[in-house]
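Entry:
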Amino acid sequence: MVFMERLPGYGRCFMCGRVNPRGLRLELFVDGDVVITEFKLEDFLIGYEGIIHGGVQAGILDEVMWWASSWGSGKATYTADMSIRYKRPAPIDHRFRAIGKVTRMDNRFVYTEGELVDLEDQKVCTTASARYYILSEEKSRELFRLLDYSNCSEEIKKRYLKLGNPD
């Protein structure tokens, strides 16, 4: 049986960092090979009145897809490019789920898809696809050591910290 595991955060990252006083502090979870976060945003993140700013939506989707890329590849990645499709407005006063998953990988890139779902009516507001450049084992090791593993299981810690620490 597969169940959701909490993923680490990354320091002062605006999206997932737990110590950024102005950040979103998204809590990210992995369920199998899918990365998930649920959230409700504050009013200061609006674009048009009552609607979540499109850039914030893109950032959240980039976040879940990045974590999916790192989970799937076992390495840190950089966003190479991303495409967003805004299908319907995302009301600021609703609760949402963002989902990211890997669609394929090659030696240099991880390809992902994501979606932002309004939990009040279960409709998809925004979709995305992205390509992430896979970093070297050395750079991945360096970056994964900086993650905040508070409230993560030992299995999650081991998965991210295994680079450079042979069993």
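The chain has a mean pLDDT of 93.
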